[in-house]
Specification:
140 residues, five-stranded mixed sheet, 5 strands
Length: 140
């Protein structure tokens, strides 16, 4: 049975280990930079099966932009394709409406086809492309 939960603080949240696992997978697969972004004050929605978190969305409301920023979305591979992400995302949409936000946004690595497809199935579209360049650091 799926149990849907939410909290306004990541710190101490039962879904924190899943978020760490997700960032580890992204780093391992080269689907993020070399930074892991877990902020204690991020809000969280997640799904538990048998008391274990299996899907999570970390988000923050940016009042000055009237925007919800999704910092991380992750569903364990063994439970993908069962609508868990869609259900969590629908909760984010409901929260956005409650807060009178004008937009939901979040970045997805261009190589992360699974997340890009999931986001597009929920109605999100790519608004921007971020170009970056590694700068070699030297002390010389």
């Amino acid at each position: 049975m799926n149990i849907f939960r939410e909290t306004d603080k990541l710190n101490g949240c039962p879904a924190l280990p899943l978020a760490v696992e997700a960032w580890g997978e992204l780093l391992r697969d080269g689907l993020t930079g070399d930074a892991v972004i877990l902020q204690w004050d991020q809000s969280v929605v997640w799904v538990e099966q048998d008391g274990v978190p299996v899907a999570v969305i970390l988000w923050a409301y940016q009042e000055y932009r009237r925007e919800i920023w999704i910092g991380l979305s992750y569903t364990r591979p063994e439970v993908r394709g069962n609508g868990l992400f869609r259900t969590l995302y629908q909760r984010i949409v409901a929260i956005a409406k409650e807060k009178k936000a004008i937009r939901i946004a979040g970045g997805v690595n261009v190589g992360n086809a699974i997340m890009r497809e999931a986001a597009e199935r929920c109605g999100r579209k790519a608004d921007y492309i971020v170009y970056s360049q590694a700068v070699e650091q030297s002390c010389g």
